[in-house]
């Protein structure tokens, strides 16, 4: 996918084309998607399963009756950001959503239909993020179905309001601060740093063209969106957005929903010292680990270790040299003999590195800290 700007980004920053907004209604639509397919969203799995149980089978049966395209459709038709970018409430957005006309609903439906059937890249069907939805690329799937979109709007709206009242208002109170801080940080850096870097920080899937007038979205949607001179780009941070990025166009507006930084920190591998990986790789070989165990608190020559472990001296010598080069084994010369022993301090340091691994704090609602 490519987003084209009518003017260069450097000039575009001088006019109000870049807008920021966090939306409880849009976040609700992503949360419904997570609840309907919890196995695809590992970091939210415990929350999703516990929430499904609390909401009960009646709610879940009603949710699963929504057609598969409904999540993207909900995001496509969610009311646009207010002109002043002021925070809004779920109830205000929900009322705007429930008053959408049939023409507005049809326009959103048409965009989703074309996205899946006209611009959909078949390679995405082999991507784990979309594999289960590949059947929606077939025009026949759509032509065999017809929906009363106003009834569908009311059905989804009822589910969203129930979810908000019973569960999601509490979740929103947990995550709104992260969304607000993300918006404030990105707005403050807008124009203060290289725009290519700025966009890559929004999502690693963004690549700004050298001329600053096109933004490549590294997901295989084969379509282009254009921001008119009077148009704008609306950036919506999200916790529940999956898979990490959603881009949708409407007339003179392109909306980009991206995962907030805090989610990346929760889901990313925890930071570890650079020295840890090669040491663990060395010890992952069974013979080398056996040698370290044999020499722990003891000493031995190449020949004595080979005799004790019933391996050839050449094999033991090769492994000992590698262990010594990484500092896991020490050499001590006694006359004409070379003795080896495990470097206890190196093992303790590695152990401290492992025990020191820490994940960034995650919200209580995810349930990760509970037994």
Which helices and strands occur, and which strands form pairs?
Elements: E1 2-5, H1 9-12, E2 18-20, H2 24-36, H3 45-64, H4 70-77, H5 90-98, H6 102-117, H7 139-143, H8 149-189, H9 195-202, E3 206-208, E4 214-217, E5 224-227, E6 232-238, E7 245-250, E8 253-259, H10 261-267, H11 276-283, H12 286-295, H13 302-309, H14 313-325, E9 329-334, E10 337-342, H15 344-355
Parallel strand pairs: 1-5, 2-6, 6-8
Antiparallel strand pairs: 1-4, 3-4, 7-8, 9-10
Quick overview of this protein structure:
This protein is of the alpha/beta class.
Structure write-up:
The structure is a single chain. Helix content is 49%, strand content 13%. It contains 15 helices and 10 strands. A 4-stranded mixed beta sheet has the order 3-4-1-5. A 4-stranded mixed beta sheet has the order 2-6-8-7. α4 (70-77) packs across α6. With 371 residues, the chain is of the alpha/beta class. It folds into 2 domains: 2-267, no CATH class; 276-355, Arc Repressor Mutant, subunit A.
């Amino acid at each position: 996918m490519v987003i084209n700007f009518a003017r260069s980004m450097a000039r575009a920053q001088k006019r109000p084309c870049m807008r920021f907004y966090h939306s409880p209604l849009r976040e609700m639509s992503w949360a419904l998607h997570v609840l309907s397919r919890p196995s695809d969203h590992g970091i939210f799995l415990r929350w999703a399963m516990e929430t499904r149980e609390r909401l009960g089978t009646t709610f879940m049966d009603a949710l699963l009756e929504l057609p598969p395209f409904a999540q993207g459709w909900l995001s496509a038709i969610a009311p646009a950001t207010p002109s002043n970018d002021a925070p809004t409430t779920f109830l205000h957005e929900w009322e705007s959503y429930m008053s959408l006309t049939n023409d507005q609903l049809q326009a959103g439906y048409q965009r989703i239909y074309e996205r899946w059937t006209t611009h959909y890249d078949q390679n995405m069907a082999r991507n784990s993020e979309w594999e289960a939805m590949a059947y929606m690329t077939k025009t026949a799937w759509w032509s065999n179905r017809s929906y009363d979109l106003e009834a569908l709007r009311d059905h989804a709206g009822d589910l969203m309001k129930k979810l908000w009242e019973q569960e999601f208002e509490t979740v929103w109170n947990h995550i709104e601060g992260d969304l607000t801080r993300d918006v404030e940080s990105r707005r403050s850096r807008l124009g203060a740093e290289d725009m290519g870097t700025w966009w890559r920080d929004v999502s690693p899937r963004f690549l700004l063209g050298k001329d600053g007038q096109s933004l490549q979205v590294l997901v295989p949607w084969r379509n282009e969106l254009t921001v008119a001179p009077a148009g704008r780009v609306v950036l919506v941070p999200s916790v529940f957005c999956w898979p990490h990025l959603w881009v949708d166009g409407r007339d003179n507006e392109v909306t980009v929903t991206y995962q907030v930084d805090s989610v990346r920190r929760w889901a990313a591998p925890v930071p570890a010292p650079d020295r840890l990986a090669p040491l663990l790789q060395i010890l992952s070989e069974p013979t080398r680990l056996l040698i370290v165990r044999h020499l722990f608190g003891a000493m031995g020559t190449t020949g004595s270790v080979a005799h004790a472990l019933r391996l050839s001296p050449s094999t033991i010598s090769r492994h000992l040299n590698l262990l010594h080069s990484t500092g896991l084994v020490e050499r001590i010369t006694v006359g004409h003999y070379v003795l080896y022993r495990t470097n206890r301090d190196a093992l303790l340091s590695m152990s401290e590195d492992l025990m020191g691994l820490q994940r960034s704090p995650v919200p209580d609602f995810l349930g990760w800290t509970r037994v």
